[in-house]
Amino acid sequence: MIAYTNTSKGFIEDVETNQISTKIRTAVLQAFGWAKVNSKEEEAWINSMQFMGNVIRRSSIADDCGVLIEYNLPSTSLRVDFILTGTDEAEKQNFIIIELKQWKEASATTKDGVVFTSYHGNEAHPSYQAYSYKLFLKDFNENIYNSSLRAFSCAYLHNYVEKDPEPLKAKIYESIVKESPLYLKNDQKKLEEFIRTYVGKGKGSDIIYHIEKGNIRPSKKLIDHVAELFKHNMLFHLLDNQKVAFEIAKDFALNAKSKTIVIITGGPGTGKSVISMNLLAALLKKKNAVFVAPTASFRDVMVSALTSSFGVNRIKHLFKGSSSFFGAKKNTFDILIVDEAHRLKNEKAFMYKGKNQVEDIVNAAQVSIFFIDEKQMIRPDDIGTVQEITRVAQLHKAQVHTLNLTAQFRCSGADGYINWIDDVLQLQATGNFNGWDKQDFEFKICDDPNELRELIKSKNDEGLKARILAGYAWKWTAADAGNLYGEIEDVSIPEFDFSMPWNSRSSGSTWAIDEEGVDQIGCVHTSQGLEFDYVGVIIGNDLRFNPTTSQYFTQWKEYLDTKGKSGLNKKPADLNKLVRNIYRILLTRGMKGCYVYFMDKEVEKYFRMRS
C-alpha cells in the first residue's frame, strides 16, 4: 500500500508550496486508517522532503519520473521512506529505494549490519535497511521478479557530517555500503548523479503500477535458496514419528480442497519445531507458505539456525509474528504454519490491534497448521488451546485434523524426566512419582547459586550450549536507566554474594545464541521453544511450597512480570498455575542435563524428596 504517489514534477511543486507534509499526512491517515500521525514523524517529513525536493530538482531528471512515499511493504509492518521510478539511458526500467534519516551521529558495533545511535540504541545500518527493502521486493513481489524491472537502493543522511574515521563506513559495513550506497550531508551531488543514472529518463508511472499491484509470493529463487539451507542442516533432521507426522501434515496441506486446520500437539522435545520448519521448506515449493511464531526470540533463533547474520534478510519475511494477520483478507496465504501456537493472544496483548489471533490466522489462510503444548501457556492473554482453535474452525466451517506427538527427543530421550517434572510440579499426575532413570539425564540440585553458575560455565567452555535461566522473581532494570547492555546485575542473592544481569536488552531476541549470553540470565520469553545442551535454573520466590497442605502457592508481590499477572491479583490459583508452567518450560530446555538452585527451601525439600 502506497500513501503518497506523484510525478517528480508534482512532488517538487508540493515541496516548494509547503504542501508536502500535509499531503503525506492526509494520505497516510487515509491509506493506513490511522487516527493521527505522530508529531515526530510529521516533523521528519517536513525536514527530509525539503532535502529530497532539492535533490530531485537539482538532478534534472525527467518530469515524469515516479515518486512513492511511505510504501507499506505488503504483509509486513515495514514502510519504505522514498522510492523513485524511471528509466535509464538504455531505456531499462528501474526504481531506487532511498532510506532517509535525521541522524547526526552514530557508532559502529561488532554486529554485522547493526549500528548504535543515541535515539534508539541498536538499529539496522541505514544502508542495510534500504537493502533489505530492495531484497524483499525482489524476492516477494511477483511483478518485479517476473519482469526485467531492476531495483537499486541507497541511504541519505542529510543532517550527518562525515567523521574521520566515519563509523558508518567501518570495515564491518563495507559490503552493505557497496551494495546500497551511503550518502551523507556533503554527498548531495553524488546522490543526484546516482538518481540521474538510473531513473533520469522518466516514464515512471508504469513502474509504480508494477510495484503496487504485484502479488506477494516468494520467488522460485528464494524457494530454492531456502531448500538449499535445509538440505545439509542436521538441526532439522526428522526422526522416527516426526517423519510420520511431517508427511501426514504435508499431505493434508497439499490436498486441501477447502479451508483446513491441522492441530499437532506434543510436549517438550517431541519435535514440533523440527516438523514445522521442515513443513515450511517442503510446502514452499508448491504453495505460498509462511512460518508464524508469537515469540520474537524463537523466530529469530530459528532464522539464525538457517543462515548467517547477513543472509537473515533474505528469508526473514517468511517468518512472521502472530499479530501480522490482523485485517488480512480471507485466504491471503495458502498455508500458515504456526509454531508455539499456545502463545497466540487475545485482545489484551500489548500493541495488538485485533481481538483474537487464532481467528486472524484461520481467516488469512486456506490451510492453518498449529503446533501446541497447552502446558506452555504462561500469560493470561495466551489463548492457543485445542478447544479455541476447534471453536474458530467451526465458525469458518473448516475441516480439522489432529495429530499427537509422543516420542520425546529432548532431555536425552528421557520421557521419565519430563513426566517427573509434570508430576512434581503438580501439573499432571504421571507414573514417575519417584523420579526417572538417572542414567538418561543429569539432574542436580545445587546448594549454592555460584555452584550452578560454575557448572554452566564449565559446560560452555567445553563447547556445549549452556545457559542460566530464572523465573521472573527479580526486577529487570529498564534500558533508559542504564541497563541497555545488561550492565545492572538485577538477579541478586546476597547471602551467597551472587549476582548476574538479566539477558541484555541490546541483544534482544538473540540472547540464546549470543556469546555474551552465558554471563547473563535468560527468562522464559528468551528461551521458550529453544533448547540447550545444559541449563541452570534458578527457581525464585515466586514459587513456594506449603508442607502442611503439600501444595504450591505464589504470592502476588513475588512474581514481577506485570503483564504475566495482569487480572490475576484475586485469582491466586490461576497465577500459581502459570508460574508452574513457566518453571516446567525452564526445567525442560536442556537436552543433556539440568542444574537447579531453589530460593524457597520448602520447594527444594519437596524436589529432593521426590527425586
Q: Assign the structural class, choosing from mainly alpha, mainly beta, alpha/beta, alpha+beta, or little secondary structure.
A: alpha/beta
| Proportion of beta-strand residues | 15-25%
The separation of the N and C termini measures: 59 Å
The helix content, as a percent range, equals: 25-40%
What's the structural domain tally?
3
Please provide the count of β strands: 24
Gross geometry:
globular
What is the typical, i.e. mean, pLDDT? 91
Low-confidence residue ranges: none
Strand order of the largest sheet: 1-2-3-4-8-9
How big is the Rg?
Answer: 26 Å
How many strands, what sense, and barrel or not for the largest sheet? 6 strands, mixed
- How many helix segments? 19
Molecular structure report:
This protein has 611 residues and is an alpha/beta fold. The chain folds into three domains: 2-213, no CATH class; 220-405, Rossmann fold; 412-610, Rossmann fold, CATH 3.40.50. It contains 19 helices and 24 strands. The protein has a six-stranded mixed beta sheet with strand order 1-2-3-4-8-9, with helices on both faces. β22 (544-546) and β23 (551-553) form a beta hairpin. α1 (8-16) packs across α3 (39-59). The longest helix has 21 residues, at 39-59. The chain is globular, with a radius of gyration of 26 Å. 47% of the residues are buried. The mean pLDDT is 91.
